[in-house]
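We modelled the chain as a single entity of 1081 amino acids. Its sequence is:
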Amino acid sequence: MPRRDDIKSILIIGAGPIIIGQACEFDYSGAQACKALKADGYRVILINSNPATIMTDPEMADATYIEPITPATVAKIIAAERPDALLPTMGGQTALNTALSLCNDGTLETHGVEMIGARIESIEMAEDRELFRKAMDRIGLECARARTVNNFDDALQALDFVGLPAIVRPSFTLGGEGGGIAYNKAEFETIIANGLRLSPVSEVLIEESVLGWKEFEMEVVRDKADNCIIVCSIENVDPMGVHTGDSMTVAPALTLTDKEYQVLRDASLAVLREIGVDTGGSNVQFAVCPKTGRVLVIEMNPRVSRSSALASKATGFPIAKIAAKLAVGYRLDELVNDITRVTPASFEPTIDYVVTKIPRFTFEKFSGAEAILSTSMKSVGEAMAIGRSFEESLQKALRSIEIGLTGLNPIPLPLADPTSSVDQLRGWLGELVPNRVLRIASALRSGISIEKVHSVTGWDRWFLERIQAIIDAENKVAADGLTEDAIILRYLKSMGFSDARLAELAQLDVNEVQSRRSKAGVLPVYKRIDTCAAELSSETAYMYSTYEISADAECEADPSDRQKIVILGGGPNRIGQGIEFDYCCVHACYTLADAGYETIMINCNPETVSTDYDTSDRLYFEPLTNEDVISIIRREAENGDLRGVIVQLGGQTPLKIAAALEAEGIPILGTSPDAIDLAEDRERFQLLLKKLDLLQPENGIAHSTDEARDIVQRIGLPVVIRPSYVLGGRAMEVVHQMDDLEHYMRDAVVVSGKNPVLIDRFLNNAVEVDVDALCDGSDIYIGGIMEHIEEAGIHSGDSACSLPPLHLSDKTLDTLKQQTKDLALALNVVGLMNIQFAIRENEIYLLEVNPRGSRTVPFVAKTTGVPLAKIASRIMAGEKLASFNLVERQLTHVAVKEAVFPFDRFPGVDVFLGPEMKSTGEVMGIDTDFGRAFAKSQLGAGTDLPMSGTVFISVKDEDKPAFIKICQNLVNDGFSILATGGTTVALRAAGVPATRINKVMEGRPHAVDAMLSGDIQLVFNTAKGAGAIKDSFSLRHTALTNKVPYYTTVAGSRAAAEAIRALRAGQLGVRTLQDYLADIS
């Protein structure tokens, strides 16, 4: 069946901001779909609220709406655009839920819009837990014993049927949000209440525990002619009980017999047909009892999923692209496999290597969060590695996740308590913790048997035997030293040992290990991902490294004779380094290819567009370590003209290895590593600022508690204090009292001569400003000046910001521009630069300079229409800024970037913002004035501002004057004010009517009681000092769990009041990004 000609325009719904459970894998799938459908001649209309994605670039779709993804907003776009079809399967759960709402409220029928890629009946059958169970019964497949409930009382009755422990799965949520494992009745009641609250249809499934069972996933694709293929089988190394997004996984499944595999394969296809997904990709999850072989169907995703991205990267099969083509009528046998270019897409992929995925966690960002895994996803990113064996793949993956591992490094065992009869080691080993493989390896090292580890953890013996093999090899090197024998070295390297890990084991310098290996001729070879296990030659340069025992192993790299540039990616997503950096890397690939260079991408993140096989000319899926990157570059340099490496676009990850590259004589394009180091070295940077006569907050470096006390007494409280050896605001705190300083130095950090703490005077009530600029070493272009909505002291990644700035004078703007130019030229910046300033009482203070790509680059590019990352890449390649004819742009619109937080995933964590970054993603609101733009940003971030009701206010003394006007405006808009004692007095004295209510510590009835009773619709709460913040925690926590909008800064509260006024004045409109940019002069 050929493509459908009755469809001319297609609306694609994106996934919105990066959140836990729905990350940049949907940027990858959505971008693939946009490119595929646009190339096929369809008019593509896109809605997505996320500015950080390639997907929302104005060139990606014909009409791009950066608007909140709500049914009401999408309905307005449908009314304006009149698309023929809606494709909802590329935007995760957000897109599916929105499409369902539009179908159920009649919008699609009213405007004659056909849903393609999935039928409504199929979505409901797959997502509704009870309908899914009935569907499985019809085809003879078994689900876990379960009951579906819609209220708390029915849940208690269901528990009698299901029993404890029980698994709770809310309907229509993503990443298992709101679910969990209940081991007792109290836990059960808590999880049920949360699950019913978070499910958009107030429905949860309560099912029998299958903890410890093996878990498998099958990625399946089907077309309208009922051609079905299994793209990839995936095995979770962690057994049931850990969300698949948090589990270490391997592909293909490694512990199934062929007969068992065929059973799951047949079941997957039966599920696909019964649910009725007749075009596109789906994911089916199974649990298999290791003792009896009993097979249960856990769930099915009738859309492109997180696992689809992993399967695509693992096999080279572009699931999202094929799914988009199938949705418009093509059959699998009519589509060509892009990797081989000779086989059809109906040719089922086969792989002759092992892929390992390890998730990346950031529990350390959330004080009080328990680092325990369950059926609710908590990881923020992942890394993938490819090897010829599980051992090689595992060790490459471990060093890819960037938590300081060089391989299967040992960790300390728990201290034995001779007075206790409890087997503490068994309890420690049984905990479901992040990177559990390290505990398992340490237990095996200590002499615990494979059988005992298996009985405690449920990990398959085969995996434990492979881990034991790694440990045996480690022990041999530790005992005998590192040989110079080439055969033994090849064997060790074929097991995935890095030079750094071998150096640790043999107590050698890493350079000595590298030297011995090179002299012995032990070098990596590169193999191609070809979808067919080398049955056919691959024309696509998608590669991974491996070491083979044979001295004459074939290398398939085949470097070209072209001019080439290497771009280093950002590695796994994590808080502080997300999709924005991948966006910059992708733009570098696109624009340098247009300029005639061969582009070579090195990265290890399976979720991203940068690791798509057609983003760069050559892709190496490898860890971003000195050894791995240098080996690739040396191989590529054997032919052609290697112009250099770009390290400034992938965040901190590439910068960490820049010095090693430079030491090897590899040219670094753009700003020199020394200039980047100068900006991060406090003492060198202070000398530069003095030379330029620029202000910086008073500061000092403390190597002990006494030194810290002396510095604080010198510069005065409050101060910002942080360790010198971490990034992304980790362990940063604003200290208002000396007692808090003593607590920080005692409990929060380990301070030494090598690891001092940095102390800066905190600028109270200062306005923070971000500036993004381009420089070619002589000319400078200011890309954007962003005014933070939250005051200084909130991490820049967590603060909302406005472009253009709203409250800065022309004189201040001119000074900011001049200081930016002075710094860029002094640092000899070639490429991108980001500077953070604080403005207080008309004085401009410099907070931080990053002579590299920043997280605000995509936002500025979308707002102004200037592709900063593309131009920066060309500058780094040698072009001059003048050749781009850039002029300062006068914006006729306002764009607001708002952060999105994962607090829902970490029960008991305070939502109070500070200098340590906590957000996972961002949204953008764009309109002709600030109020409407901010309102859109709040809707996009999931905050539904009230139009009427009661506002609760409890603020610190210094903020009370600012809140008088805010409250007066809210009263004028018809709101009632409920406030605590001191705030009530201040408001009444200023003539603002307010009703007093108790703080929690003052006795009941108090503000939390009123919130739980539904009497409060909006919360403004500011606090100062650790004690006050702790005392007001229950206010913010109750607001979070009851979906009451809350703001914890003056500026955020003021912006919310403006947004409410804008919303009350009339409905929000929708407009394409292309139209906004066309109006810019």
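As a brief sanity check on the tokenised model: The mean pLDDT is 91. The radius of gyration is 29 Å.
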